[in-house]
Write a structure and sequence with these properties.
Elements lengths: L16 H18 L6 H8 L3 H8 L2 H26 L5 H18 L1 H16 L9 H20 L9 H21 L5 H13 L1
């Protein structure tokens, strides 16, 4: 009787969506805590409770896994922000910006591993430029589109100095965004990021 043989390096559980999810979550925790360079494949598979087979099958390499974690993170974040901003489409731009920052605080307070991973993400991409090849540019473009829409609405409502460039305004939102992520990653009191958002919104009124 003939039996089919599984290809080498492809363990029985590599087709499991749950295994892939566990790998992403384990990698997010490791990368966020130790950084890309200091995280080994062994660290990740030990935390996920799997062998190295699923890592190579699903992601190809540690860099590929990093990209999958980053793409998963941005998809979760952008999806939430699009819902929040869309639900407030009839409100003024300051309210929508405040709601977006509030959502950012909620997301990163709820998930400390995500906060740590995203807080150091820009530095990781500078230290290891080849990681950029694994990042989904379309997901990043969705986030940029949210920022661009806020800027356009702010101009229409005359909330900003007309001499300010779009690039400078985009940088301002980026500073608020990444600053809030970093703050959520390091602050101990869960309520404080929300206090920061309230102060920002009041200052923009």
């Amino acid at each position: 009787m003939s039996t089919s043989r599984r290809p080498p390096g492809r363990p029985p559980d590599t087709n499991s969506a749950s295994t892939r999810r566990e790998m992403i979550e384990a990698a997010r925790a490791c990368f966020g805590s130790f950084g890309f360079d200091k995280t080994s494949n062994a660290d990740i598979v030990e935390k996920a409770g799997v062998t190295t087979g699923p890592l190579y099958h699903h992601f190809g390499s540690k860099a590929g896994l990093y990209g999958a974690v980053a793409n998963d993170s941005i998809a979760v974040l952008v999806g939430r922000l699009e819902d929040v901003v869309g639900a407030r489409a009839d409100e003024d731009v300051v309210s929508r910006l405040g709601a977006m920052l509030q959502a950012v605080a909620e997301i990163y307070i709820e998930d400390e591993d995500l906060a740590r991973f995203d807080a150091i993400g820009p530095l990781e991409l500078k230290r290891t430029p080849e990681l950029v090849d694994h990042i989904d540019r379309a997901q990043r473009a969705r986030l940029s589109a949210l920022f661009d829409a806020l800027i356009e609405d702010a101009r229409d409502a005359q909330h900003v100095d007309p001499t300010s460039s779009d690039a400078a305004l985009n940088d301002l939102i980026t500073v608020l965004y990444f600053g809030l992520i970093y703050y959520c990653a390091v602050v101990d009191a869960d309520a404080r990021p929300f206090d920061v958002v309230e102060v920002i919104v009041k200052g923009l009124r």
